[in-house]
Amino acid sequence: MGQRIHFVVDPQGWCCMGLIIFIWLYNTIFIPKVILFPHYEEGNISVVAVLCYYFCSLFCIASLFKASVADPGKLPENPKIPVTEQEYWELCNKCNMMRPKRSHHCSRCGHCVRRMDHHCPWINNCVGEDNHWLFLQLCFYAQILSSYTLILDFCHYYYFLPLKKENW
């Protein structure tokens, strides 16, 4: 897996990432303030639930940044093609470079990517051979955080609020 930092200059990708960071900040500040902390003070939620929410949030934003700046498998300018593998390489008609057969040219990034899946505007990067696992981690942590937030919202409106009204 490549360790080079990769940055794409794409205004649409910047808008999508900005929207994601805004939603993440909103959920990291608003959900604990409205749901977690008041119910923690009442004794309905344990400190473990609060810490788990913040760990999920931290893992989600860390995986977003890792997937965003990781090199997706960009092909070098002058690749050294082994003699035994020359039949498996082809010429890209957009950038006029030799590339392996399963590589694709990304029109947003302007280069060929090994085993390119797609260009994801939400991470402002291509999903390719070297960052595919990071993209899957991001999807997993986003799913965990979204599910946890949904469960907290459900508990807040259908369990904690009626419980508070009965005790009132």
From TrEMBL:
Palmitoyltransferase DHHC domain ranges (all copies): 88-162
Enzyme Commission no: 2.3.1.225
Main location class: membrane
Comment field on protein domains: The DHHC domain is required for palmitoyltransferase activity.
MF GO annotations: protein-cysteine S-palmitoyltransferase activity
Species this protein is from: Atrichornis clamosus
GO CC term, one of those recorded: endoplasmic reticulum
Record keywords: Acyltransferase, Membrane, Transferase, Transmembrane, Transmembrane helix
Keyword Transmembrane included in the entry's annotation: yes
Membrane-traversing stretches: 12-31, 43-65, 138-159
Keyword Electron transport applies: no
Protein name from the UniProt record: Palmitoyltransferase
Localization, UniProt: Membrane
